[in-house]
Design a protein that fits this description.
Pfam families: ABC_tran
Domain ABC transporter: 15-246
Protein name: ABC transporter ATP-binding protein
Distance between the termini: 49 Å
Order of helices and strands: EEEHEEHEHHHEHEHEEHEHEEHEHH
Region (Disordered): 327-348
Keywords: ATP-binding, Nucleotide-binding, Transport
Bound molecules: adenosine-5'-triphosphate
Shape: elongated
Oligomer: single chain
Strand content: 15-25%
Structural class: alpha/beta
Largest sheet: 6 strands, mixed
Strand order of the largest sheet: 6-7-8-3-9-10
Number of domains: 2
């Protein structure tokens, strides 16, 4: 009898990997990866070239056998239920192959037939629906070879959506697209959760991920460096950083800011003492940039004159560079999980 442990077809957890590892010979392409993707997520899977994104997606699809670890999809063990699980997944990996002389519509017909959708009015209706969604109705009858790269990518997404899968895996879907193509693809991807889909999107385009995803994992050299909501990550953006001239002034400022937070300025409640990239002691205050002049004025009342005050402008790109140590950090990373993992990026 088949063991039914861990089987939950309605699980809100769509992808869960534990200790997922893939070695190619001595090279660890993916190392001990714990991912969690929830239903309705647009999950950004970020990493530079060669960090293991495609290998991970291939393992999720059962195209590459893991060296160690486990994968659960829709609450079921992937290795035991692959054939039942695959119809619930649509994917674009690398550049999909279409027939150049067939039209976009006929290429979709071929995909539909291969996917077991019988020809007929229901199939035609579905093809219409998909062509409208990917905004190719007007060019549906043009040969594929006449399509722009953006149209080709949209057709690929249409093909992945044809069977109405719950999970869409997209490997670098905006690669090579011009800004208009990137925008169109982004808008399309954004619609998918409203249609009940979960999206797993790999990219090295950090800004893209920031704009379109709600959760993100950052990978480097096969290691998971960070996993959280994008919002959590970007909260750091709303910080004002204050540096004083001397250690004595810093001490006085710290005491005064604490006092203020308990008295007339409760909005100063979230202050951290950190070091900037040059090793200077700074205060990171969770407040909008509009408060900068107020902070300066409050401190000046006590003859504490700031040496420097600025809004921390951290985005995913900064964080990514910081975690992979490609560039010095603008501050310490008090909120960043797994700093010991981040250290792994130090030794390239
Ligand atoms: N079939 C294979 N045989 C040997 N090594 C491989 C194989 N596939 C991938 N690798 C290696 O595994 C590592 C991860 O590759 P992978 O393609 O997963 O990275 P990636 O993050 O998708 O990179 P890119 O953004 O360039 O596609 C790389 O060092 C790559 O050379």
């Amino acid at each position: 009898m088949v063991e039914q442990r861990n089987v939950d077809p309605d699980s809100p957890c769509i992808i869960q990997t534990a200790g997922l590892t893939k070695a190619f010979g001595v090279r660890l392409a993916v190392d001990d990866l714990d991912l969690k993707v929830m239903r309705g997520d647009i999950f950004g899977f970020l990493g530079p070239n060669g960090s293991g994104k495609t290998t991970t997606i291939r393992m999720l699809l059962g195209l590459v056998r893991p060296t160690a670890g486990s994968i659960q999809l829709f609450g079921q063990e992937q290795s035991q239920h692959l054939s039942q699980l695959l119809p619930r997944i649509g994917a674009i990996i690398e550049t999909p192959v279409f027939y150049p002389y067939l039209s976009g519509l006929d290429n979709l017909r071929v995909v539909a037939l291969r996917s077991g959708i019988p020809a007929g009015s229901r199939c035609d209706a579905r093809l219409d629906e998909i062509l409208t969604l990917i905004d190719l109705s007007a060019r549906a009858k043009d040969a594929y070879r006449k399509y722009s790269l953006g149209m080709k990518q949209r057709l690929a997404l249409g093909a992945a959506l044809l069977t109405d899968p719950e999970l869409i895996l997209l490997d670098e879907p905006t690669n090579g697209l011009d800004p208009a193509g990137v925008h169109e693809m982004r808008e399309l991807i954004r619609c998918l959760p409203q249609m009940g889909k979960t999206v797993f999107l790999s990219s090295h385009l950090l800004y893209e991920i920031q704009l379109v995803c709600n959760r993100v994992a950052i990978l480097n050299e096969g290691h998971l460096l960070y996993q959280s909501t994008v919002q959590e990550l970007l909260q750091r953006e709303a910080q004002i950083v204050v540096r004083m001239n001397t250690h004595t002034e810093s001490e006085q400022t710290w005491a005064y800011l604490q006092h203020l937070s308990q008295q007339e300025a409760s909005w100063l409640h979230d202050i951290k003492r950190e070091q900037d990239a040059q090793g200077n002691e700074v205060f990171a205050i969770n407040a909008s940039s509009a408060r900068s002049s107020e902070i300066t004025a409050l401190l000046a009342q006590k003859h504490l004159y700031v040496a420097e005050i600025y809004q921390r402008r951290e985005n995913l790109e900064d964080l990514f560079l910081q975690l992979t140590n490609m560039q010095g950090p603008s501050s310490s990373t008090a909120n960043v999980r797994a700093p010991e993992d981040a250290q792994l990026g130090l030794h390239k």
